[in-house]
Hints:
Amino acid/polyamine transporter I; binds phenylalanine; transmembrane; symporter activity
Amino acid sequence: MQKREMWGSRTGFVMAAVGSAIGLGNIWRFPYMVYDNGGGAFLIPYFAAMLIAGIPFMILEFGLGKKFIGSAPKVFSSISRKWEWLGWWQVMVSFIITTYYAVVVAWALNYFVLAFFQGWGTAPKDFFFTKFLAATDSPLHWGSVRPEILIATAAAWFLTIFAVFTGVKSGIERTNKIFMPLLFLLVFVFIGRGLMLPGAVDGLNWLFTPDFSAIKEGKVWADAFGQIFYSLSIGFAIMLSYASYLPEESDISNNACMTVFINCGFSIISGIMIFSVLGYMAQQQGVPISKIATSGVGLAFITLPTAINLMPAPIFFGTLFFLALSVAGLSSMISLNEVVVAALMEKMNISRKKAAVIFCSVGFLISIVFTTGGGLLLLDIVDHFINNFGVLIGGVIEIIFVAWFCRVDDLRAYINSSSEIKIGGLWSLSIRFVAPAMLCFMLVSNFVGDVSKNYGGYSGTATLAFGWSTLFVCIAFAAFCSRHNHAFALIENTNRNFLKRS
Ligand code: PHE
């Protein structure tokens, strides 16, 4: 049997985990969430969520991966054959996300090139929808494939699968060791100049001035927990796969804390970057910030190009921003790829290279759908349903299964045996009560919201065909894979003692 791959160093592992955590969510989701949810006051629920749910859940995933040494399906299967499906559910969720994440990264790569000559012209909104995407008016009308987006999508797949293909240490670790310092450098250089722009400091005041009445609202707390789970890439079994390559004596809890702190610190830095630009733009255009503050695709591909047009050094700011966005996206995509590739390798008993080629070919073919004129709307629906249900369902079942049906105190002792920071009863309390309660609350409120009203005003056919259907695909895939005979059957049975017997 082949020896299992390992990370080359502690820094390499933390960089990879941070690379997964830091993604588009930090840059285009977090800043607006702070602004919209009480400004500086939002940081209270945010840091509370980080401490009471984010760190404990991260420790749990690191611990599970390291103790049971495997991809998600293998870990759950080795605890109990009946639970293998949960791992496959998470693998399918990651797979679906990668197919469209690649296309968003492709947009960022395209815009990076456009930034050299402000190719978005004087009307970035028009350019984005009409010229760049050739967007159709319905997710049911796809139009034709956009060649530039297709090429960049192929590049995104190539770059990320190349990292996974070449192995944990020489591919994933090495890439992240270049990408993460580069990302921080780009953002710091951007801020260094950006903060000197007139109006930039006003932007920061708008972002951080606290409105303490906001923290009385349940929605604000749910948003804070949602952002923490999404941003830390927990509940996707990503961290679990990454931790499975840790050498025996490695630390768990301190590494988990470092990953979380670096990610959340980066979010704050991104907030400063985005709002310094928005402050400047508001001043230049003489409009209130509320008119221009947005998040997501609109922020990155419409508002930012508009602001960059007004800036003193547009090429400098434009290329920095879109390169940062691309790098943040690529490193998250690598982690999604690894989840799927590791699971395929172990299940089918094939080489890493073979698994990478199979996965990449299928994934790329599906991505093509998102490069058509209907891509943006399709992506919007799939993203909403997979994040609001696919990820949450996987995460909530994972945490309830481990915290309630397994010998979680054994896991705690195992984690403590190699960790610098010892975890106590508070950790168990969090993973048994706080984290699952918040996840369940979010899941139920999302469900009520989406059943009572069609998401985003799309037709029932569209939400059924591209939204709810993603969940059926996950169920079918999980059922299919876990019923099939496989290499995991060879796993020795000692891990089965982890399951509580009633
Ligand atoms: N953590 C990423 C972000 O903040 C999102 C993500 C989650 C990406 C899971 C990949 C996998 O953007």
